[in-house]
Design the sequence.
């Protein structure tokens, strides 16, 4: 097997920095690719947590003035990941979230911050690090979207490029004037370049110039070619359909493993599912819910937003209560949704429990103790929560969109699909359709043999990166062969 060298470019990487699923993919994929002969190094910004956690750093390059201040390129590692770190303190040495201030407002210089990341990615692609000259530069989301553009406009021999879309809703839109300060020619401000409704879009740059475009599920790859799903880029993606494909995400099955998980109260596997009841009891205690094994406990781990359909779940609360179910929700986001969920918990003590924020340990316990996990998204590129739910024998109740459609087999479609049922899917994405799935799930919950079959089918589903990493490796090799 001929080795392939790939530079991944990502704005967040688990377990160092995480705000969403992008970090999980950027952290797990490089390790999974090793078995497929792919040597991947990941370039990321030098946020404070990165500088604190990355070990064995060696200085590769220094600049007295890199996008407005001194900077360094470092090589290092963390938890099995080989990393390049762009240490530019005036751009990255800031508290909290990588993208927003403590008030939740975008950093005003985000365009400059992530242009700097893409510029050094292109330079590494051109041989800035002689010990690691990549054959492919793989950019993740808008924060890395300028890397294919820089390589294109540099107008010299370059590596192949891949652009992965994790969520079309985030597009990296900035004023056209930014072009003058990030080292791209003004000719790039064009409908066939970065121009987007009078400004520029970093995501468009990646979609326009990458040799291959991937997204994180086959269904989402089809959805984003529509005018609605493409969110302004449907036409461009239809033009580039021949180089667009969907590769499902996986999860790190070492981190998410109920047989070894140190974050849950009682460990278990397919042969000892009875221990889930003990986790459920601890979860009910944590969320101040009534102690009951006969009440189906619905879990939610989500950003509270319109995209995630959490307003629809609020409308379905009368169904949850009427069916004798309980709800445990962990998440944060839209302030109005936060307040409405907290009000629902106050109005229904013992039946609804809400924790605002994110807690990794509590997220694991929710997977291990919930009878079902609800993901009612209006659109969902892939989704990782439902994959974890399958791994933990929590039955997914999901909308028929994106990766949710691709990863869950509805109880009513199992026979026709030839696959074993693993959960419940609803369409259209409305409160009424969600309520119908909740009622159906409640009926199945009280049929213990049927529920156990769903759980065991989920546990038998391969949600790892093994096969998915192989698809990326094949894509890389095809690209390299095409350029030989």
Sequence:
């Amino acid at each position: 097997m001929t080795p392939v060298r790939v530079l991944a470019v990502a704005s967040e990487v688990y377990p160092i920095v995480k705000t969403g699923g992008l970090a999980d993919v950027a952290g797990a994929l490089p390790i999974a690719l090793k078995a497929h002969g792919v040597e991947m190094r990941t370039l990321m910004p030098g946020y404070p947590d990165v500088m604190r956690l990355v070990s064995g750093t060696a200085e590769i390059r220094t600049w007295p003035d890199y996008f407005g201040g001194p900077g360094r390129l470092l090589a290092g590692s963390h938890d099995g990941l080989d990393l390049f770190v762009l240490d530019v303190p005036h751009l990255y040495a800031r508290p909290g979230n990588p993208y927003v201030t403590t008030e939740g407002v975008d950093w005003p210089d985000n365009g400059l911050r992530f242009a700097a990341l893409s510029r050094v990615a292109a330079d590494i692609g051109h041989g800035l690090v002689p010990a690691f000259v990549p054959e492919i530069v793989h950019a993740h989301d808008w924060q890395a979207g300028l890397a294919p553009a820089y390589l294109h406009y540099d107008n010299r021999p370059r590596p192949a490029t891949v652009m992965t879309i994790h969520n079309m809703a985030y597009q990296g839109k900035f004023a056209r004037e930014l072009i003058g300060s990030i080292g791209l020619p003004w000719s790039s401000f064009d409908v066939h370049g970065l121009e987007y409704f009078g400004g520029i879009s970093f995501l468009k740059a990646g979609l326009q110039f990458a040799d291959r475009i991937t997204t994180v599920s086959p269904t989402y790859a089809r959805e984003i070619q529509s005018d609605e799903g493409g969110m302004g880029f449907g036409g461009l993606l239809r033009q580039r359909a021949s180089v667009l494909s969907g590769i499902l995400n996986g999860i790190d099955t070492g981190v998410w493993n109920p047989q070894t998980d140190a974050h849950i109260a009682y460990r278990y596997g397919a042969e000892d599912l009875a221990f889930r009841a003990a986790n459920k009891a601890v979860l009910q205690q944590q969320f101040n819910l009534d102690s009951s094994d006969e009440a189906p406990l619905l879990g939610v781990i989500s950003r509270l937003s319109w995209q995630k359909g959490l307003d629809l779940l609020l409308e379905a609360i009368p169904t949850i209560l009427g069916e004798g179910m309980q709800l445990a929700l962990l998440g944060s986001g839209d302030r109005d949704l936060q307040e409405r969920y907290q009000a629902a918990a106050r109005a229904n003590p013992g039946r609804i429990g809400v924790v605002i924020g994110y807690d990794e340990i509590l997220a694991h316990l929710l997977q291990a103790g919930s009878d079902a996990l609800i993901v009612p998204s209006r659109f969902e590129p892939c989704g990782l929560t439902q994959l974890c739910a399958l791994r933990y024998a929590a039955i997914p109740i999901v909308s028929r969109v994106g990766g949710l459609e691709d990863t869950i087999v509805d109880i009513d479609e199992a026979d026709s699909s030839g696959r074993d049922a693993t959960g419940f899917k609803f369409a259209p994405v409305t409160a009424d359709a969600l309520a119908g799935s909740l009622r159906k799930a409640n009926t199945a919950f009280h049929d213990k043999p049927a529920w156990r079959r769903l759980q065991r089918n989920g546990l038998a589903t391969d949600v790892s990166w093994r096969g998915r990493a192989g698809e990326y490796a094949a894509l890389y090799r095809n690209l390299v062969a095409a350029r030989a």
About this structure: The chain has two domains: 4-250+466-483, 270-459.
